[in-house]
């Protein structure tokens, strides 16, 4: 176990699914050796505040302060500021709790002083006492824009929260990705990691934005044998959110195999749930090793078991 504990592990992360995986990973690997590269294409500017939902979900979860009912925002939250916004008929469909607003105030102020998102993310996670290295995919603005079947373009949170992702989508693009640079440590960390994990986050709106940043996909391709992706689709269903519907609307197969096809160029190993065991052959035919595991992380011990199984498998290959 010492060998596992001292491995350097990089995890490509969206929000809730990735946060759960990290809660398990910190029980298996020294947190100082873990880096979370986090999607920031869901970020938004609202009420003049810079909000980074996936970074905050990961930070609050690892700090054991996440709201357990929603999976986002803080526990023991108050809503008095939002109540005021509602009273003024302001924008209140994206709910910001009183404590959470403090994070956005601090982040926005530091960015206005010239700090990078990487700097502020480090400052915030350090104040929460976290040892895991949490870095945004880029310090440059990249924003997910979805086009509806009716041709309307929507910012990601308009689609996801305001419209409850209950609208048909025909296209997803990541505005700004052509010129965005990866956060400075991202590529060296990927190139030097013992293992790289792709969390069971939404492949189309959480992981794809990270892969769209210059150099990241190439770096992963060069490390394909050390990259393991975990399916966020189990038994044809998404564990959370609109992944199933999005895959279908954009003509992918909504199955573990469908997700494996998306990652086949960058991941040498793919983890599927025991419920999808029958897909093993199809995945191996894609040129990927296939691990069958219990991937439903109902608590951090289950997440740790999953991480232990994935990492031991990789160590045994060496
Ligand atoms: N998700 C919601 O469904 N409704 C909300 O009002 C909402 C507010 C919110 C505030 C801060 C934050 O960090 C996340 C928040 N989320 C909310 C979650 C967020 O929209 C999504 O989970 C992610 O962007 C997708 O990973």
Hey, roughly how much beta strand do the residues contain? 15-25%
How many domains, in number, for the residues? 2
Largest sheet: 7 strands, parallel
Identify the overall geometry: globular
Q: What multimeric state do the chains show?
A: single chain
CATH-defined superfamily of the largest domain: CofD-like domains
Radius of gyration: 19 Å
Count of alpha/pi helices: 14
- The CATH architecture classification of the largest domain is 3-Layer(aba) Sandwich
Bound molecule types = ligand FO1
Structural class comes to: alpha/beta
Measure the end-to-end span. Answer: 15 Å
Q: What is CATH's topology name of the largest domain?
A: Rossmann fold
How much helical structure, as a percent, in the residues? 25-40%
- Helix and strand element order: HEHEEEHHHHEEEHEHEHHEEEHHEHEH
Unreliable runs = none
Question: Tags for this entry?
Answer:
18% strand, 3-stranded antiparallel β-sheet, 318 residues, binds ligand FO1, Rossmann fold, alpha/beta, 40% helix, 7-stranded parallel β-sheet
